[in-house]
Amino acid sequence: MSVLRMIYLALAVVGAVVPMYFFMSWFFENGFDLGAMMRAWNVNDAARGLVWDLTIAAVALTVWIIAESWVRRDWLSLVAIPATFCIGVSCGLPLFLFLRARPVA
Length: 105
Fold this sequence. Notes:
This protein has 105 residues and is an all-alpha fold. The protein has helices at residues 3-30, 34-41, 45-72, 80-86, 89-100. It contains five helices and no strands. Helix 3 packs parallel to helix 5 (89-100). The protein is elongated and about 45 Å long. The mean pLDDT is 94.
């Protein structure tokens, strides 16, 4: 495995662990209430702007993943889509780059 692929994989792992740490901390403190979490994301304009920034980036990444998977016939790369929306762009993007950097038979 190339050094670049190892870097992408490490970033995907860190991009999964760090956000999940904060999500789990929030859930332990506030209970598993997705509605309350969404309200917290909209507490002020700065937070709302960040949410929209990440949402637009996630949609753009999803379009790119689908387009690349279709052209390369690399269906395994599609696993980066649920990673993006269930964990975050910080996991989905490096995971997709890791998968995209491998040779496709």
